[in-house]
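Sharing in case it's useful to others searching the archive later.

Someone asked me privately for the predicted structure of VOC domain-containing protein, so I'm posting the question and my answer publicly. Question first, with the sequence:
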Amino acid sequence: MSTPSQTHGAFSWMELHCADGAKAQAFYSDLLGWETKTVDVGVGPYTMILNNDEMIGGFPAMETDSPRWLPYVTVDNVDARVEKARGLGATVAMEPMDIPNVGRMATIIDPLGGVIAMIKYSEPANA
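And my answer, the predicted structure tokens:
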């Protein structure tokens, strides 16, 4: 059985980009019962969103004056999908990059203005 993090084309993660992560965490914890756990991911703190002990997303530490949710979709090859997206008229908002112990990701803006991140997760160490 595969999971969203293993399935090409599946939504696998959500991030809320906002300037007041603590306020967002409190709101969603009260509204949906989400728990949070802040970890150091090597580039600063990252607050994980947990739903029934399952990690489903995060609140990255960032400054932005335009709060938004960013969905992540699992892909088979980030670099190839970025090039295909360009060919289909997308704009690349963030070029492919490696995130240690997570995987390779990029962010695109589709021709209609929709923003989405694509990710290929790293293989688990025991795989």
